[in-house]
Amino acid sequence: MSSLPVSSIRALADLHPKPSNLRFQYGTAGFRTLGSTLESVMFRVGVLAGLRSKKLDGKTIGVMVTASHNPEADNGVKLVDPRGEMLEASWEGHATVLANAADTDAFIEAVENLVKTMKIDVSKPSRVVYARDTRPSGPQLIASLEDGFQAINVEARNAGVTTTPILHYLVRAINTKGTKDAYGEDSEEGYMNKLSSAFKKLIAGKPASPPLIVDCANGVGAQAAAELSAYLGETLPLILHNTATTAPGALNNACGADFVKTQQKPPPSLASHLKPGQRACSLDGDADRLMYYYLDERSQFRMLDGDKIAALVAAFIGDLVKAAGLDGQVRVGIVQTAYANGGSTKYLSERLPVRCVSTGVKHLHHAAEHYDIGVYFEANGHGTVLFSPETLTKFAEHQPSTPAQSTAVNHLVNLTQLINQTVGDALSDMLFVEVVLAHKSYSGFEWDSLYVDLPNRLVKVVVADRNIFKTTDAERRLVSPPGLQARIDELVGKYDSGRAFVRPSGTEDVVRVYAEARGKAQADELAFRVAGMVYDETGGDLAQRPVEFL
Ligand code: G16
C-alpha cells in the first residue's frame, strides 16, 4: 500500500506558512475572513479535499473559493460533498484542525492523524472540481489551492470563474454521470440548458412576462445571468444591472441581496430604473441568494425576501401535488430559521408542517431531506426545494386519471429539473418565482399580500469575543453568557408581538441581533436595546459602543 507523499507535502507546505497570530474556523459556510490571510488555509484545504475524495473512493469533491455576500476584501473557501451538498459536518472539525496546525511539521502530523483515524486508503485516486468568484484575491488563492492538490496528486478540474450553485451542480453531475441518477451534463452549458428548457416547458402557453430587473451585485452572478439570459431569449427578458465585476470595490457594495435585506431598500443604482409595479431582484456575490422587491403605487419599497419566496413556492407545490392526485402520498414540509418573520411562520404553519433549525444552509438542507418535498428558505434569500428519490419515483409511476392530473404531474416533473437540488441557487430560484407568478397571474402586489410581515430589525454588534455567545433551541435562546437570556426575555415581554434573539455570526467577526415587534419604531428600539445589552456584556466602553445598524 502506498503512503502519503510526505516530502511533496512538506516542500509545498513550506511555501504557504500559517500566519502565527491567526486562528481559523470552518464556520457557517466554510473558512471566511480577510482574503490576504488565507493562503495557508487554501493550501491545506487542497490537501483535505484530496483526502476527502480518497476516503469516498475517488468520488469528486467540490471546492468553491468565495466570500459570498461579504465585502470585497474578504474571501473564503467551502467544500462540497459528492451529491453536491455541503461538506459532512464531522469533517468541518478536521478542516479546522488542519488549518490551525502551527507549522509544516504540525500540519504533516495532523494529516497523518486524519489518515489514521479516518482509515483513509491513500492509494485511492482523488478527484476535485474547483471554482472561484470574481474577487481580486481569487487568482492567488487558487494558486495556493492548486499547490495543495499537487502535494497529494489530486486529479483536479478547474471550473474557472463561476457561481457557487453552478459548482455544486457540477459536482453532482460529475458524480452521477452515466448512472440512472444522472443529474445533467457536467458543464456550465449543461446547467444553462437544463434550467432554461425546464423553464420554457413550465411557462408554455402563458402570456409573455414583462422584463425583470436583476441586480447582479457586481459579482460572478453577472456572468451567469448574462449567459442564462441568452438561453431564455424572449421567454424572460432580463435587464441586468450592477455587472461591473472588475471595478475595484464594487462587489456587494450598496447592491446585492444582503444590502437589500439588511438595509430594507433597493440598491441606489436602481433608483431611476424602478418604476411602480416593476419587478426586480438582487443576487449576492456568488449568486446563491435571491431577494425580490418592487415599488408600490405610492412608490414605497416592498421587499419579497426568502420568507415570501417560501410562502409563494410552497403553496404552488402543495396545490400541484393536490391537483396531481398525490395528496396524502407526498408530504410537503417547510424549513426555516429563527430569522423567519413571525408573519411568515404563522402563515405557513397554518398550511403545512414547519420546522425551525439553526442558521446555515447545511442545517436547512438536512432537515428538508426528511420531507417528501422539502422547501427551505432562509429569510436572507438562501434556499431551494428538495424532492426525495421516492417522490421522483412516485411522479414517474403515477397514473393520472384526468388530463388535469397529468398536467400537474408534468409540471412537478419539470420543477424537479428547474430547481437546483444541491443548494440554494439565485438564478434557479428566480426562474421558479417567475413560473409561479406566471401561473398565478400575480404581480408583486398579490404575492406580497399573501401575509403581512411583522416589522423587524437586524443589527450587528462588534464585540471583543463573539465565542462567549452560545445558543440553544435552533439559536433562538442564549445559554451563555449566563443571565443574559433572562434579561432579554424580560425586555421582549414589554413589546407587543415582541421577539428577539442573539447569535454569533459564522461568517463575520460579529454578533447578530434580530428583533421584531408590532410597530417599526418598536422593532428598531428592541433591536437596539438588545444590542446594547450584548455589547455591555463584553465589558465595552459605553461611550464608544460600536453598534452599527445595518
Ligand atoms: C452563509 C450561509 C447562510 C447564512 C449566512 C449568514 O451565506 O450559507 O446559510 O445564513 O452565511 O451566516 P451568519 O449569520 O452565520 O454569518 P452566504 O450566502 O454568505 O454563503
From TrEMBL:
Question: Which sites are catalytic?
Answer: S68 (phosphoserine intermediate)
> Which part of the chain is the Phosphoacetylglucosamine mutase AMG1 domain?
206-290, 305-442
Query: Which PROSITE patterns does this entry report, sorted A to Z?
Result: PGM_PMM
UniProt-annotated binding residues for substrate: E378, A379, N380, R503, P504, S505, G506, T507, R512
Q: In which pathway does it act?
A: Nucleotide-sugar biosynthesis; UDP-N-acetyl-alpha-D-glucosamine biosynthesis; N-acetyl-alpha-D-glucosamine 1-phosphate from alpha-D-glucosamine 6-phosphate (route I): step 2/2
The UniProt record lists the Alpha-D-phosphohexomutase alpha/beta/alpha domain at 60-89, 105-178
Catalytic activity field? N-acetyl-alpha-D-glucosamine 1-phosphate = N-acetyl-D-glucosamine 6-phosphate
Which parts of the sequence belong to the Alpha-D-phosphohexomutase C-terminal domain? Answer: 459-531
Cofactor(s) of this protein? Mg(2+)
Q: Which domain of life is it from?
A: Eukaryota
Which Pfam family is one of those matched by this entry?
PGM_PMM_IV
Q: Name one GO molecular function term.
A: phosphoacetylglucosamine mutase activity
- Gene Ontology biological-process annotations: carbohydrate metabolic process; cell wall organization; UDP-N-acetylglucosamine biosynthetic process
The cofactor note from the UniProt entry for this protein is:
Binds 1 Mg(2+) ion per subunit.
Keywords on record: Carbohydrate metabolism, Cell wall biogenesis/degradation, Isomerase, Magnesium, Metal-binding, Phosphoprotein
The entry's Mg(2+)-binding residues are: S68, D284, D286, D288
According to the UniProt entry, what is the EC number of this protein? 5.4.2.3
Give the family, as the similarity comment puts it.
Belongs to the phosphohexose mutase family.
Tell me the function of this protein: Catalyzes the conversion of GlcNAc-6-P into GlcNAc-1-P during the synthesis of uridine diphosphate/UDP-GlcNAc, which is a biosynthetic precursor of chitin and also supplies the amino sugars for N-linked oligosaccharides of glycoproteins.
Mind telling me what this protein is named?
Phosphoacetylglucosamine mutase
Give the originating organism.
Hermanssonia centrifuga
Taxonomic lineage = Eukaryota, Fungi, Dikarya, Basidiomycota, Agaricomycotina
